[in-house]
Amino acid sequence: MASRRVGFCLSDKKRRRINLSAFSDLCAGRGIEVVEIDLSQPMASQGPFNVIVHKLSDVIVEAEYDSQSQQLLSNFQNYISAHPQTLLLDPLPAMTQLLDRFASYRIMSQLQNTLKGKSICCPPYLEINTSDPSVIQAAVRSRQLSYPLICKTRVAHGSRSHEMSLIFSEVRLCDVRSPCILQSFVNHGAVLHKVFVVGDDHFTVERPSLKNFPPGPCDRSTIFFNSHDVSKPESSSHLTALDDTMPRLPPPSSDAMVALVRQLRVELGMALFGVDVIVNIHTHTLTVIDINIFPGYEGVPQFFSSLLSYIESIMEKQGPSEPAVDPDLSPQPSHCHEELCPAGGDKF
């Protein structure tokens, strides 16, 4: 039996998407046993684990209304509390905050303050909790958001989180579906840069994205779309078709990207996450538009080797009786209190 054991707690869909069996074979060659954790069974009988890699998004969301999911989550938390020597990738509180776009956008908006001089920003936005069009209109005017606006659901997990819309004028704010984020749309040449983080490594993959739109309000109906239809590798949509005369934008600055990933690792206290960034066609500013929990790492052939290297580095830091802690991810004071609202966004 291998002396080093890594537990994976993933949905069936996630397990298939990352091809966990292939990763298990790679680990076996390095003397590491991979265990697929069954939450419906006692975890103590499945352990011990040096490291647990998980994506419990579904369980956390369902635990809000489903007693069985509540019990599964409680059992998992109890096991982790009773086994402090086991490192959890990633901490549940850190991951949970990214299920709420209000919380993740507050983190993003702070980056332009903590990374001054790196040409990194988050577009101005509003947190919308009302369905009253007059209140929303007043809020957009007060915040001086520019049209078109992109509207995203507050929930950042599940199929509904991919349902978005583009709103082109004040009169069309009646199409807003609360609770949501309203954000000024930034023209970016229909190119999305997906940054995949694995511990100290990060990889950038280009994806199609929304085309440019004329700035300013116009008499155009709201466009409702699913982000999977415009930003997956195989996506083909009229919403991503650029004018042939549009010059190709320069890639994001590597220095800015390194600074962004390093700061987010500190802010989030996480090792496995993704960041969606675009480049403003006018200012060439690196613009952060979303943070994702344990993404699919599609288009990253180095994912397995990078994840294995990171897991091994964590194990090497473990003393024989010490908790498994990554010193690079020491707990940081939370900046995302519900009563606070940073400069990047206001609540309405």
* Low-confidence spans: 321-328, 330-343
What is the CATH top level name of the largest domain? Alpha Beta
Beta fraction: 15-25%
The radius of gyration over CA amounts to 21 Å
Q: Strand order across the biggest sheet?
A: 12-8-7-9-6-15
The coarse overall form would be globular
Order of helices and strands: EHHEEHHEHHEEHEEEEEEHHEEHE
Which second-level CATH architecture of the largest domain applies?
A: 2-Layer Sandwich
Distance between the termini: 57 Å
- In CATH terms, what is the fold-level topology of the largest domain? D-amino Acid Aminotransferase, Chain A, domain 1
Task: Please give a structural write-up.
The structure is a single chain. The protein has helices at 12-18, 20-28, 57-62, 67-82, 92-97, 101-114, 133-143, 227-231, 254-268, 303-317, and strands at 4-9, 32-36, 51-54, 87-89, 120-121, 125-128, 149-153, 163-167, 180-184, 191-198, 201-208, 223-226, 272-279, 286-293, 345-347. The longest helix is centred in the N-terminal third of the chain and has 16 residues, at 67-82. Residues 321-328 and 330-343 have low confidence and may be disordered. It has two domains: 4-89, Rossmann fold (3-Layer(aba) Sandwich); 97-300 and 333-347, D-amino Acid Aminotransferase, Chain A, domain 1, CATH 3.30.470.20. It has ten helices and 15 strands. The termini are far apart. Helices cover 30% and strands 22% of the residues.
Name the features.
D-amino Acid Aminotransferase, Chain A, domain 1; globular; single chain; five-stranded mixed beta sheet; Rossmann fold; 348 residues; 2 domains; six-stranded mixed beta sheet; alpha/beta
